[in-house]
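Entry — protein

Goal — fold tokens:
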Amino acid sequence: MPVQTASQIILLGGQKIAYTLIRSRRKSIGLQINQQGLRISAPLHTPLPYIDNVLQQKAGWITKKLTQWQEKKSLNPVWTLDAAYPLLGEPWRITIKPGGEITLAPQLAFAITQPPEIELTPHRIEKFVMNWYRQQATTCFQQRIAIYAQKLALPAPPFRLSQAKTRWGSCNSRGIISLNWRLIQLPLHLIDYVVAHELAHLIEMNHSEAFWEVVERACPGYREMRQALKSYS
């Protein structure tokens, strides 16, 4: 029998919660919460009242986790003329100069003079802003890698920009560091933490106590930065 999927609603703590119910040949009930919301996986013939009872027992945990996801600061851009595009934690906006040149400027200097012949479609905005982000990220990340590699007495390794959905950075066995382009939207100290974290893997390719000692040597106070990073999605 194929997997069965249905949308359901339950009242938890006085709050209506929508969730996706997925029935399959699994033998137990599983709960997952992410940016898409609550997803329940259950055996094919589990009665709905039984599933609802399980959710009621987990009501506190479910509502807490859903709230945490809602409070996460989204880094997914909206490709419109009036959108803010964060750079190093500060909002920037599109500015169109009288001659028709498109630029980005800090929000405090925000001004649009849009000639009628300029048509900024979402596709054109996305292309322009993404090119800008990649240029900013490449320059910034190279500088931060050089600074933190020196702190750890390492040669600056090669790096590349990543478009990963769930990882800020990685370091492979060849010593190449990948950094998510979205990092350029965050405050600089959070970028520094991710850079220090990945460079530390060139010394300790694990997450042992020795690894975290290397991270702390490069980036004192990393625990607060690591926690702050969790508020972004």
Notes: The radius of gyration is 23 Å. Residues 131-229 form a domain with the Zincin-like fold (CATH 3.30.2010.10).
